[in-house]
């Protein structure tokens, strides 16, 4: 492909194939396609060589022209150790994870290109886009592609990352908030004073002012006061609209900017020609009231987002050691220097320094690939890693970021959809449609209003009508109805014990037709279990048959596991905590745990796991066998009481016509009780291994069922991920399964029918708020086009209506929730 300049034969305007901008003469041609500059041609060549030209099929001219100010080495500073440490989310010997904010992202083509970065450079392993946040999380090999070169690559294709050192220190957000308050203050000061100096004009019936010289002075002062509002207070509106225009689309700020310019220009014209005092009060009032409305919206949204991300969204706790004592601490309360005790399969909630001699860490939660790595004492362990094998101690070195953990929770490796499906969903989503069609429609209606009244000989009325239309018609209200309803519902679910991965889970919950329960730790209450030791030799049921040494060994072995039975046995032997040197600790899902102690293989688990092939004892409860090498010493009989309210739970789900099934890895000792409870013996499945549970879910789905799987997430992670919706039950919140879509506190499981009803009611609230938004826009347009609405009134109505939608959604959702949960 060789670009060659050619002389155009006609004066027709030629658009750049990549970005859509006008092409100057002479044209740059590559593959028969015109480009406005070498930057756009270079990006096209890069995409074409990597077979990524499908990028251009999503939208016409989707690209952004690369930054003209870019120079080689612009991002070299990000490779400095002190900067790199603040930027990266995770790093090991081979891979690094980093999240960049890319404000240039604006459409589904951007998603397609960014999530195919690995095809542009071999150093990129994967990329996941957070479209609403304009962020991309990239997994790369720094040995091949350093961070600085990654930033260079993003810039060359038109997505320059925004990197602020103030952001790294957490100062930028506070600075922006102070700036917004200053903008409101300046606009409010100017608006108030302009109105005060306009009083003579307001009350001079039919006259501009009785005192001409004083009137002129006030008019010029009004003009002077309006300039800071135009140049400073309204700056964000202009910047947002300009960035959208550079991206070749119209956003919701474009009509606002046009209305400000029309009002200001008209006012300056009247002052210059001495035909009137202008409309500086309207112009400053428009900016003032819009800024107040947006500030209140931002504060309300920030409050809801904070509640969702930190208070109710990710209920993880950690075990902190203080001497020999252990206590559970919410991750939000962890401090630098806290000593964590992490067991097998538990999540590392914060960056920490390893204190134990060694540990195996599975970073699949971060990278999506299950490749455990060995770490030695003193090495840094990153948040999101999962301990594999023997328990380990570590010191916290960095404050916890739950927002980062929730981001990991939404990793594609744990989601049941691919990137192409997500891009298609985003492309057809409401925000994208609004950006494409709503704003151009507003401009069309505004222009039509102006032309209609002008042709009627009332140009001033036409200007008022056009300006009012530009302000009062607000697509953001349509977006707010969806955003705030979802955010509020997520917070409500969290307050009542159900923690959602993301707002999309709510809609899934409304479609459920079948619920599959795991038994142990789900329907049963493991923290209230009773434990008895039964010796196979003597047949007695006392702990005296176990030697003190064996009690210490069993206590140490179970202390490394988070399985409910291990936790109960460890609690039963809590007084026998001793330092026992365990080697080659291993936990087999659905079977048991084992380790070498002084050359002997100690096993604790199911009969098959320890090699017990005789007839199982016909007694109530679950049996966990203990074996030393090939000799079975006996078993722990564990009786788990069913949760309070489980009968009501089953009855209410029956009333909702939701089919119910039970999957259990235990024996069928409880078959009689469960058959009486659920009513259908063929819906009960016992001695189920993890693969068996997965096959049961698949069988129900093949019959057309929308399946909700409820389990502890330890032996049923595959079933949780396979189901349309997976809920993990947790009694102590120290364990977590990334395959689940939600976490429910164990004592709140009986609220499952209320959760489903709330989700369905939430969809009704969303439709109701959406209807209110449409009604507002319809009525607003109808009044504005007739010229009966002053622009400043429109500026008050728009944020007022937005706040009304927010309050309506919040109040209605909370009232419904209180009625649903008041009896529980």
Automatic annotation (TrEMBL):
Membrane topology per record: Multi-pass membrane protein
MF GO annotations: ATP binding; ATP hydrolysis activity; copper ion binding; P-type divalent copper transporter activity
A family per Pfam: E1-E2_ATPase
Protein name per the record: ATPase
Domain HMA: 96-162
Native species: Arsenicibacter rosenii
SUPFAM superfamilies recorded: Calcium ATPase, transduction domain A, HAD-like, HMA, heavy metal-associated domain
Residues in coiled coil: none
Subcellular location: Cell membrane
Phylogenetic classification of the source organism: Bacteria, Pseudomonadati, Bacteroidota, Cytophagia, Cytophagales
Alphabetical keyword list: Cell membrane, Ion transport, Magnesium, Membrane, Metal-binding, Phosphoprotein, Translocase, Transmembrane, Transmembrane helix, Transport
Any one Gene Ontology BP term: copper ion homeostasis
Transmembrane segments: 181-199, 219-238, 250-272, 278-296, 434-453, 459-481, 764-786, 792-817
Major site of localization recorded for this protein: membrane
